[in-house]
Amino acid sequence: MSTPQNPPLPAATLLLIRHGRTAHNQAGKIQGRSEVPLDEEGRAQAQHLAVHLAEQVQGGQLGRPPSRIWASDLTRAQQTAQAVAAALGAAVITDPRLREQSFGEYEGRLLSELLAENPVFEQAWTQDFGALHPPGGESFAETTARARAWFEEARPRSGGELAIAVSHGLTLSALLCALSGLTPSEAMRRGLFRHGNTAYTTLSLDPETGQVRKYSAVQAVHLTVGAAG
């Protein structure tokens, strides 16, 4: 006679969000660790996101309100997280491990110029983020390591728990590649983990092990609704 198996615990949920738009985003400039606040459009995006997530919580799609809202210490992420926190009634916990990849000498440069003049950078940017290592900056592998260290410490650990993190485009890509087991080049070929401003990915996690049970496509419907309103 077989021993009955305990049913699996309900999943824990982690929302990974990219910050709202900045003037550097609009101009096509590389930001990295540069301190650039949200522009007017970015502030509006953050508000649309906050309303959307509050509706998702109230409607039951995200379950209970978040236990924690984490954010990078860079201003653009803080401003986005504060808008979400105000709508969801939670405080923001700051963690520098959620910062964007440092781009060293490339910060403030136009992306289009770098792509045109630097074939090594162009190949890494368009085909394999894993090869990114700007002069005076941080490698993609280093970004991955610190983001993964944050996850192991901060991930939700109870069935049905919701946690939120506001971070940056490359940092989110690095973490999602690490958690999904995909190489950066494979994820790029498949068009995965590319977040526009205030877009997010939802992860369903095993609350005991942290293993990813499933991940959503990048979500940005709130931006369409906000633009129409």
Tell me about this structure.
- The protein is an alpha/beta fold.
- The chain has one domain (12-228): Rossmann fold.
- The protein is built from nine helices and six strands, in the order E-H-H-E-H-E-H-H-H-E-H-H-E-E-H.
- The protein has helices at 23-27, 40-58, 75-88, 111-117, 119-127, 140-154, 169-180, 184-189, 221-228, and strands spanning 12-18, 68-71, 92-94, 162-167, 200-205, 212-215.
- Strands 3-2-4-1-5-6 form a six-stranded mixed β-sheet, sandwiched between helices.
- The chain is globular.
Outline the secondary-structure elements:
Layout: E1 12-18, H1 23-27, H2 40-58, E2 68-71, H3 75-88, E3 92-94, H4 111-117, H5 119-127, H6 140-154, E4 162-167, H7 169-180, H8 184-189, E5 200-205, E6 212-215, H9 221-228
Parallel strand pairs: 1-4, 2-3, 2-4
Antiparallel strand pairs: 1-5, 5-6
Helix pairs in contact: 2-3, 2-9, 4-5, 6-7
Summarize the structure.
The protein is of the alpha/beta class. The protein has nine helices and six strands; from the N terminus they run βααβαβαααβααββα.
- Compute the CA-based radius of gyration: 18 Å
Number of helices: 9
Count of beta strands: 6
Largest sheet: 6 strands, mixed
CATH architecture: 3-Layer(aba) Sandwich
Q: Supply the number of structural domains.
A: 1
> What is the N-to-C order of secondary-structure elements (H for helix, E for strand)?
EHHEHEHHHEHHEEH
Low-confidence stretches: none
Q: Please give the share of residues in helix.
A: 40-55%
CATH superfamily: Phosphoglycerate mutase-like
The rounded distance between the terminal residues' Cα atoms is 61 Å
Q: Structural class of the helix and strand makeup?
A: alpha/beta
CATH topology: Rossmann fold
